[in-house]
Each structure stands twice: as C-alpha cells, then as structure tokens.
Write a structure and sequence with these properties.
The complex is a heterodimer of chains A (866) and B (267).
Chain A lengths: L12 E5 L3 H4 L3 H10 L3 E6 L11 E4 L5 H18 L2 H7 L2 H6 L26 E3 L9 E3 L16 H4 L14 H9 L4 H8 L3 H12 L8 E5 L1 H4 L4 H14 L10 E3 L6 H6 L6 E2 L3 E2 L8 H12 L24 H14 L25 H9 L5 E5 L3 H4 L3 H8 L4 E6 L31 E6 L8 E4 L4 E5 L12 H16 L8 H4 L17 H9 L1 E2 L18 E2 L38 E2 L27 E4 L2 E4 L97 E6 L15 H6 L4 E4 L1 H7 L6 E5 L4 E8 L6 E3 L2 E3 L1 E5 L35 E7 L1
Parallel strand pairs in A: 1-2, 1-6, 2-3, 6-7, 10-11, 11-12, 20-26, 21-23
Antiparallel strand pairs in A: 4-5, 8-9, 13-14, 14-17, 15-16, 18-19, 20-27, 21-26, 22-23, 22-27, 24-25
Helix pairs in contact in A: 3-8, 3-9, 3-11, 8-9, 15-17
Chain B lengths: L3 E6 L8 H10 L25 E7 L7 E7 L8 H5 L5 E3 L5 E3 L9 H5 L6 E4 L10 E3 L5 H4 L6 H5 L5 E5 H15 L7 E3 L9 E5 L16 H42 L1
The chains are: A alpha/beta (866), B alpha+beta (267).
C-alpha cells in the first residue's frame, strides 16, 4: 500500500476493483465503513456480486479480465472532461498543478515512438518482435529504443499544458505524454466499454462521474486492489492503469488516496521486501545477472538506470533520483555493500569485492519464478525442493501439472503445521483414471519426502510487515506444540548442518556457505536456536567495528564499515538499540489526527506512513487538503508525517535545489508514461490467454490460434506462456464456452492447510462449490445443491452448484457470456478434503509479461452435472 | 443497574461470520458436520451447538437492483420474553442487566420455550443438564454473561471487524440506533430500528435499511396466547401434578438402577 489501512477512512471515494476486500480483508471494512459514515462513496467493480458489492453505493459488473478497458474508459472520460472544460473549470475539477508539475504528463516523447494504432503492427507499439519457435517462454518482446523522452537528459515540457491555456488536443504537442495518452484511449467510449466489459453504460458513467469527482484539489479517491488485478497475463498493466488514473486525479501521496495492494497474507509485504521474489535482492535491489562479472559491473548497470534526469520547464528543477543521488552519494552501492557485509561480514572485504562472487547469478531470459521453477522441475533440472508455508499442489496454477512435476524430485522438504497436499503429492487423486476415487501409483514415485512440523504464528517471536508497510513485532504466546519449531529455528539448524557438511571443502559451491556469517544464538530461550532480535538488528544494520546500530540507511557506507540486511528496514531501531517495531503508542499525534499513529510499530521507509507525500502539498508546502494534511511546511520545517525527502518546499528552495516530489524516479515526477514495462508505456486492452472472443474488440486483432501459444495483439504480445510442449493445454471457446475464475472465501485461508483442518471453519464452508448464474443453470438444468463437474483443458473439479443471481449473463460484443466461479482453497488431505476439489486444477500455467504471476483469474471452462 | 444491549447494524455487516465462530470459541461449542447445500449459509439452522448464525438473503435479479442482505439470528433477549413466561422450572429468567439468562441445571428439557419463542431461537438437545435427566436441555445465546459481568464485551461484539456489532447500555445504544436510522432515512426511506418497541423492547437492537420482513424478522412479534395461558392458568395447576410426576420419576429411577445392576452382573 502507498498508504495504510487506517487511512482508508480519509477517502472521499473508494473503488474496490480486482479485490473482494469485505470477504478477504475483513478488517479493511472497519475503515471503509468509517469513510462511508463520513459520506464517502464505495464502488465495487467485479464480475460477480460479492459481500463487498453488497455494501457498495455502485456495483459495476465487469467481464473478468477487462480491467484495462474499464479503467481505460475511465481515463478517456477524465481526459475528455479535462479537454472539454474551460481552463478555469478544468482547474476547479482537476488539480492541474499536480498533473502537470508532479507527473510526466507534460513531457515530450521521442518523435520515433508510435502508439499501438499507428505502429503498423495491429495492437502493438513500435518495436515489437515475435519470438520464433521454440519460444523461450514469452510470446515476444520489444526493442524499446524509441520509448524515451525527446530530450533524454533534460526532457522538455508542453507549455500550453503546464500553463493550462489549451482548449483543444491540437493545442498540445502531438508527442506530449497527455496527448499520447488520449490517443491511446480515445476509442474507449461508453459504448465501447459496455461492448467489451459488459458493464451497462449508465452504471459505467455513474462510476466515472463519481470517481472523477476526487480529481478536485483537496479531494481523495483510493483504489483497493488485490489478486483479481494482478493474476492476469497483463496484471502489471492493470495496476499501471490504476496508477495513471490516480495521477490524473492527483490521488497519490495524499491522505485517503493511493494505490493500495491488499496483501494476501499477513506478511506478504515483508517477504516481498526481503526478496522472496526471484528478480530482486532485499530492499528491491536488482538481482545479480550473469553479465555482472564484478561488483563494479553490477553497480554500473544500476547507475546507468538510475542517474538523475531533470526535466526543464517545471517549477521543480532538481530530481533526487534517490538510488543514485550523486556520484558522491551512491545510495545503491551503499545498500549493496552493506547487504554483502551482513551476509559475509569479515569475509567480505574491499579486496574480494565484498564477496560479490558468492552471490548466485541469474541467466538473462531464464524464468526463475514459480511457473519457471515448476517447468524446470518438469524438465528434470530442479531435483530438490524446500516448501515453507506454501502448498503449491493446491495453490499453484495447473496444479495437477505441478503435482506431476514433483514426481521428478529426488527429495522434497515441506515445513508446515499440517500435512499438506504438497507433502502428500505421491498419494494424490489420479486425474487420468475414469474412477474419480483412485489415486496415482505411488510405487512409481521415487521422491523422498521430509515433513517438518512448523510452529504457528502464536508460537514464535518476530516481526511481520502488514500491507501498510508497518513492521510490527509479535511475541510468542505459547510454546510450539510437540516437536514443532519456528521457521527461523529450522533454518538455523539447516545452515549450521550445511556448514558442517561443507567444512574443509573449498570452491564456488563450498565457499559461500563456509564463509557465510551465521551467529544469531544468544542466551536463555535462544541459547540453542537463532534469536529473532539478533536477526532484526542485522537487518536494520550496525557499524561492523563495534556493533553499534546505525541511525538509518543514510548512514550506510560503501567502504564496508557498515552492514544492513535490508536498507529499507534501516531505521527500525533507534541508535540506542530500541526496536521500534515493538512500539505501541496508541496516540495519534499526526496533523489533524488523520490516523498515522506514527509511534505504533514502525514502517518503512524511515517511518513514512504515506509515501510520495511531497505530492500532497503545493509549491509552498501547504496541503491541497487542509482537512487531511499529511505534511505541512511551517516556519522553515516540515510538520506531520516524515516527508519524502526533507528538502524545503519548491518555492522556498534556491534555484537548482527545488526538489521534485517523486524522489525514487529518475525524473523526479511520477510516470503516466511508463516505458519500464515489457509490453508498453501505456496499458493496451488485451484478452486473457483463454478468451471467449474470437476478435479483440479493442485492438481488432483476430485470434487465429485458438488452442496455441497465443496471438500477439489479441493476447498480451509479451506474456509468458512457457516453452514446454504438452505442459500447458489451452482450451478454445467452442469446447469451453464459459469464463472461469477462482477466488477466496472469508471462511477459508489460501491453500487451506490452516483452515480446512479447523472444525469451526469447515462448518461454515465445508466443501468446494461452483457458482453460476440462473440463465446458464436453466440451460444446463442445474439446480443449487446439485453435484457438478467443471472442466478445462487441464482437468476437472467436482463441486456443489450454487445457482445465484450474483452471477448473471453479460452481453459482450453482442454475444452472451457466462461466468463460473470456483474457490481454490480445497484439497485432498486433512479435514473437509475431497478428491478433485482444488480450483487450481482448472487454471492455466501462463503468466504476466513482467512478473510471471499466473493467470488464475480468467480461463475457459465447461460445466455439467456430475 | 443499567440494562445492557447489543446493537447490530445490518448496513455495516459484511457477513464475515467472525461472530459465529467467536461465539463457538468462547462458549466451547463444537463445530457441526455440514455440507454445502447450494448456499454460503451454514449450519442450516440454529441448534444446541449453534447459538448464533448469519442469514444470507438474495433479493432482485439485475445488477442495478440486486441486494445481498445479511442478518443476525440469535436470542433477542426480549423484555416480554415468551420463554421466561412458559418455563415451568424458572430455569429461564431475566438477569438484572436485562437479558434473558438461564440456569441449565434447572432446565427440565420440556421444550416449551422452543415452541413459544416468536423468533424460533431456543433449541433442545444441549448437554450438561441436572442429575435427573442429563440430556435434551435447552440451549441458546447466554449474552456472554460470564464476560459482561467481568467487564468484557460479548465475544461476538469483540470480534466484529466492521463495527456492525456494538455493546453497551441499552439507552445509549437506542439513541445511537435512532440517530443511525435517521441518517439512513434519506437514502432508505424504510430504515427502521428493530427492537426499540418490539415485545416491550429487545436487548438486541437492529439497524435495518428496510422493513423487518425483508430481513426475515417477524413484524410486530407477539408472545403466543398459549404461553400466557400457561403462565397464568395452567402452571399453578401444574405444580400439583408435578408432585405426582416427581414421585413417578423417583420410582422410575429406582427400577432403572436395579435393572442396570442386574445387566452388569449378567455380563
């Protein structure tokens, strides 16, 4: 979240899209409810009517996977309203200073850049190249050489836009970002949105008018999103769509605004920060590439991407570009060297490049994400797997394919509170058998499985980071049951055993382990296992010489005299060693009590509760919204939240030191134009990998490849579809005419290992079901309570039918489209288990072009009575 | 002492059912084995082991008129409580804080309260009865008497994430509910505070954005006539008969005990 949970109460309009917050983040509705009591409007956009929709002022139905058309339609409505309003009215309805001075809306783009309508390749931007067979994972990629500013060192701006003197699009430079954005979306009319998404245009218009009202200076709208947004082959671009709209409305950095990713489990934020993803190191430092032969190579690659680029013609005249503030303040290098010190401590010296060679390096073009890992397992490359707090045999896409891939493992370690489907993959239901009660032949599976009992959250101490980036310390309430141990205790033993095994050996495999710094045991309770307090202190960072805590990431050094396991968390301790994650001051001392509660736990970065907050004030440092001030300049200092960079307000600062507000961007302004993504600087409306349509109603590209890899321009031209023959079967709309989707329930949790073993929760949602609308049910003669079989090209699920008007037939391009929904929590071991009950048996093994997150949320299926 | 109450605001309820689980957890009630019957609602009904459950109601058929309504089902803790009226053993009674409490050890398992309740709440089949019968005692929400008399909120209120449930002095909650209904009226002309007047005042108040029947609540609930007749006419006669019944039960006990003894000797 750019903001935090409590801040939702400050919003004037809350749009829940790609999320079912009431059901999956129940506590969020404490704050949604408070906002509504203040008069805020709640909009729920969802293919099905949910418990969130039940509380909404506006429920907008939308065909699954159409976020870009929906948001693109809203962007078009806003841009059209801006253009057709007189400059004076425009300035009342929209925060023109914010849009033109704090984003790159006014910047001029390279003349060679061509949008998807003028590039010559239908549905694609200029520079597209389709990968030749066999495709290495992705359908295609872009040469981005024209995706840049006209002036790459000092981008210039459109003066008519900045000065708010324009009245027609032709008054603006044809290559200025705002005009390019209009060109990108100008066809997304109300009629087009209704035709593509199925949202009736009167409802859609109501959404546009209601949400766009937050564009006025002093108003704030927030977007709450979750996996319904991200789990698509274009999930990243869905979020980009939200970001662009929020920037046009001046909603980033302000109280009650932001783009708020509701994390799926309580510590997903923390695990992402600590590099659970394969493309990053802790603190979002870039992963080391095979071309980075030395630390200098690595740093130079980072520097090349992070050098400040200051636009000319704006009120601000200095871009911080925090990662590379200057050659004297090479933050990227400080963070990286301190990380290497934390890992290899005394064995990391200037003489050996701070042990840079001990880091594993990834090969460009290879996919190391969840999808790629299981493909490698299927190919026999990955031979062993450790699974912590995960259950891929239920949670992974095409879960039968993934279970089958595990047959190739020599060994499998699962650490969990209960036996999971992953640990029991060798006695799974046989998908091939006509007898749905049969299991696979276990005698043919050679994998050795280790199941370690893990402690649950109440049985261990440590920090968790919530969606609002708050690191909160939790204490152990009770001792773990039986032989169960905390994850940290298990890893501690594992590492020490590995060190024992490698002792005496040298070479590239042994050295990183032998030289690894590993000294976390203390006294008492932690005499025989790692002390989480020690780990936390190392993450924060200390001076290596005397182990005194550093102040925060500003005091980290490039010379190896400091260590820090994650620069973002540097600041969690005070210099006298108090762990601020343990702070519990319930007093809200923020300006106007906007609910920051800054002394309750600690949040990264440096306890800044609302990030990008310098965008919440004008050039004088005065808040746009005086009722909900995040920060405020007063007598030469900042009041309120920790400002995003402590420099003076733009009007107070000397020329050459007027810092622009978005300090992590090289340009200092936020990205409406965002060339960093794989498939384009603006989101284009592509169809899901499996789509009920034959022609993309936006790009006009026809799908000539109903069951193949995917068609560029119909589908996302860069999406990840894998390169393994037979691994991923694709279904066409003739055999599988209905749109399937998976989701979670309030009463169950993720892959179910904790909740399905709980009688009180089983009672509430005892078994898997399939929801469908009355029109489809009547055609199929299915009644509520009937046993049904939902099938896709990958497999089938046996479920109980729920026929409900919460699902309804949509008219898409003149054709009726039905949705079928299946929760994905269920499996075949433990309580409330059943064979062929995991929703992810149905989902395809394809992923987003940027992140490879699987497309769990839209696929094609069929249904019939079982 | 001021009477206490629970205020349930249906307009703030997301039917997360945390209350349903918290009730079972605090009161040590076992989970029931259920199946999906084509709805999210489960267990199918209140029972001796389920004192609180959420009702889900779907109304309308198009996206712009569809509503999904949620309502709490549990004891309403009436001022004019039919169950108290009909209870032959005075197991059911009004606590000084206003709610309807009961002493399980006094319950004879007669089931009259089950029949008489206008809200169809009490259920037979609870365990833990007195020495005479052992089984089939009445069960229902106990207003978390053990919590509230120790300064805590009822478990359902404590767990509610959205603030749909609040607990406090009934007079305060009445004022709060009235204010909330007044503010809802502009958007929902049928908004109504249920429990203000019903049965001379309930100790569970409902803020509704529509008429009570839409939420499955009886409009103008009444104590059944039979219950009043029982209390005022039949029960005094009954006490005479009860003496005879007790004598019979005593004989039964002696015979049954003798038989058990014989059976065990045969084994």
């Amino acid at each position: 979240m750019t903001n935090h949970w409590i801040d939702i109460r400050n919003s004037d309009c809350i749009m829940v899209i790609g999320s079912n917050a009431a059901e999956n983040h129940p506590i969020s509705f404490k704050w949604v409810t408070k906002a509504k009591e203040r008069g805020a409007k709640l909009i729920s956009v969802d293919p099905r009517f949910t418990r969130t929709s039940s509380k909404a002022d506006i429920y907008a139905p939308m065909r699954s996977g159409c976020d870009i058309t929906f948001i693109g339609g809203m962007i078009r409505w806003i841009l059209n309203d801006m253009q057709t309003s007189s400059p004076a009215d425009r300035a009342k309805k929209y925060n023109i200073t914010y849009v033109t001075q704090y984003t790159n809306a006014a910047l001029i783009i390279n003349d060679g850049f061509k949008g998807w309508k003028e590039s010559g390749a239908a549905g694609m931007f200029i520079g597209y190249k389709q990968n030749t067979e066999p495709a290495p994972g992705k359908i295609g990629s872009y040469d981005k050489s024209t995706w840049k500013y006209a002036n790459t060192t000092n981008p210039n701006v459109d003066a008519a836009l900045v000065n708010n003197t324009w009245t027609d699009w032709s008054d603006l430079n044809p290559k200025c970002v705002l005009r390019l954005l209009w060109e990108n979306y100008k066809d997304f009319t109300l009629d087009k949105v209704e035709e593509v998404t199925g949202c009736p245009k009167d409802i859609f218009l109501n959404v546009c008018q209601t949400y766009a009202a937050t564009g006025a200076p002093g108003k704030a709208g927030t977007i709450m999103y979750a996996m319904g947004t991200t789990q698509h082959t274009y999930g990243t671009q869905n979020i980009r769509g939200y970001a662009i709209m929020q920037l046009l409305l001046g909603n980033i950095g302000v109280a009650g605004g932001g783009i708020n990713a509701l994390r799926g489990t309580s510590n997903v934020q923390g695990s992402t920060d600590m590099c659970l993803l394969s493309h990053i190191l802790p603190g979002y430092l870039s992963m080391v590439n095979h071309t980075d032969q030395t630390l200098t190579d690595y740093i130079n690659r980072a520097k090349g991407a992070k050098l400040p680029v200051t636009p000319s013609g704006l009120g601000g005249d200095k871009s911080a570009s925090w990662w590379w503030l200057s050659d004297e303040a090479q933050n990227y290098k400080k963070y990286m060297v301190s990380l290497l010190k934390a890992w290899w401590m005394d064995n990391a010296t200037a003489g050996n490049d701070f042990a840079f060679d001990y880091l594993p390096k990834v090969t460009s073009g290879h996919d190391y994400t969840h999808i790629g890992t299981f493909e490698s397992m299927a190919k026999g490359i990955v031979k062993g797997m450790m699974v912590w707090g995960q259950n891929p045999a239920v949670g992974g896409p095409d879960s039968q394919g993934e279970r089958h891939a595990m047959d190739n493992l020599d060994w499998l370690l699962v650490s969990d509170m209960f036996e999971t489907e992953t640990a029991a993959f060798w006695k799974r239901p046989d998908p091939e058998s006509t007898d749905s009660t049969r299991t696979v032949d276990s005698s043919k599976i050679k994998t050795e499985v280790f199941l370690l009992p893990a402690a649950c959250s109440y049985e261990k101490q440590g920090s968790i980071s919530n969606s609002g980036r708050w690191a909160q310390w939790r204490y152990k309430a009770v001792k773990p049951v039986g032989e169960a141990k905390s994850d940290l205790a298990i890893i501690d033993v594992l590492v020490l055993k590995l060190k024992e095994k490698y002792a005496g050996e040298t070479g590239p495999k042994a050295d990183p382990i032998n030289k690894l710094f590993w000294d976390y045991r203390t006294t008492g309770e932690y005499a025989d296992e790692a002390d989480p307090n020690e780990v936390a202190m190392e993450i924060h960072g200390y001076n290596v010489a005397d182990k005194s805590p550093v102040k925060n990431f500003v005091s980290l050094k490039t010379d190896g005299s400091t260590c820090s396991g994650n620069w973002l968390y540097s600041g969690m301790f005070t210099e006298d060693g108090r762990n601020r994650a343990k702070d519990r001051d319930p007093v809200d001392a923020s300006l106007n009590q906007i609910g920051l509660y800054s002394n309750w736990s600690w949040c990264w970065p440096i306890n800044r509760r609302i990030i990008y907050n310098r965008a919440s004030v004008d050039f004088d440092g005065q808040p746009w919204d005086s009722e909900h001030p995040v920060i405020q300049r007063s007598n030469g200092s900042w009041l309120g939240d920790i400002p995003d960079g402590g420099w003076p307000a733009i009007n107070e600062a000397a020329p050459g030191a007027k810092y622009l507000p978005f300090i992590m961007q090289t340009e200092g302004v936020a990205h409406i134009w965002g060339p960093g993504r794989a498939e384009g600087p603006f989101p284009v409306a592509y169809e899901p990998w499996e789509s009920p349509l034959h022609t993309n109603l936006v790009t006009g590209v026809t799908n000539g490849d109903l069951t193949g890899k995917g068609t560029p321009g119909f589908n996302n031209p860069c999406c990840y579809v894998g390169d393994l023959e037979g691994w991923n079967k694709k279904g066409g709309p003739d055999e599988f005419p209905y749109v399937g989707m998976t989701y979670r329930l309030t009463e169950m949790w993720q892959a179910g290992q904790m909740t399905r073993n709980h009688p009180w929760l089983n009672e509430l949602q005892p078994e898997v079901f399939a929801e469908l609308g009355p029109e489809l049910a009547a055609e199929k003669r299915i009644k509520s309570g009937d046993k049904v079989k939902v099938s896709t090209a990958r497999g089938y699920v046996l479920a109980v039918a729920i026929v409900t008007p919460r699902f309804h037939r949509m008219t898409i391009g003149g054709k009726g489209v039905d949705h079928i929904g299946v929760p994905w929590h269920y499996g075949f071991v433990g309580r409330s288990s059943a064979f062929h009950s995991s929703g992810n048996i149905l989902t395809p093994h394809v992923g987003d072009a940027n992140t490879t997150i699987p497309e769990y949320k839209t696929f094609l299926c069929n249904i019939g009575k079982a | 002492m001021a009477e206490k109450a629970i205020l349930y605001d249906a307009t703030k309820c997301t039917a997360c059912r945390g209350c349903q689980v918290a009730c079972k957890q605090w009161n040590d009630l076992p989970g029931e084995l259920t199946t999906n019957r084509g709805t999210y609602e489960n267990p199918p009904d209140l029972s001796a082991n389920t004192w609180l459950k959420m009702r889900f109601t779907e109304i309308g058929d198009t996206p712009d008129n569809f509503r999904w309504l949620f309502a709490r089902r549990a004891c309403m803790h009436c001022t004019d409580a039919a169950c108290v009226e009909v209870c032959p053993t005075n197991a059911l009674y009004h606590h000084e804080l206003g709610f309807v409490a009961y002493k399980r050890e006094l319950c004879s398992g007669c089931g009259y309260c089950v029949e008489a309740c206008p809200f169809d709440v009490p259920r037979s089949g609870g365990g833990g009865g007195g020495a005479v019968h052992g089984v089939r005692t009445m069960s229902k929400c106990i207003f978390c008497e053990d919590r509230i008399t120790n300064g805590e909120e009822p478990a359902c209120v404590k767990t509610c994430p959205t603030g749909a449930l609040t607990y406090g002095d009934r007079s305060d909650l009445l004022a709060e509910g009235q204010a909330r209904v007044a503010s809802l009226k502009s958007t929902y002309p049928n908004a109504y505070l249920y429990g203000e007047k019903e049965l001379n005042g309930l100790h569970v108040l409902y803020v509704l954005d529509d008429t009570p029947d839409v939420y499955g609540l009886p409009v103008n609930p009444q104590i059944p006539v039979a219950a009043t007749v029982w209390q005022d006419v039949l029960q005094p006669i009954g006490w005479g008969l009860a003496g005879l019944a007790a004598l019979g039960l005593g004989l039964n006990y002696v015979v049954a005990r003798r038989k058990i003894k014989i059976n065990s000797e045969e084994e």
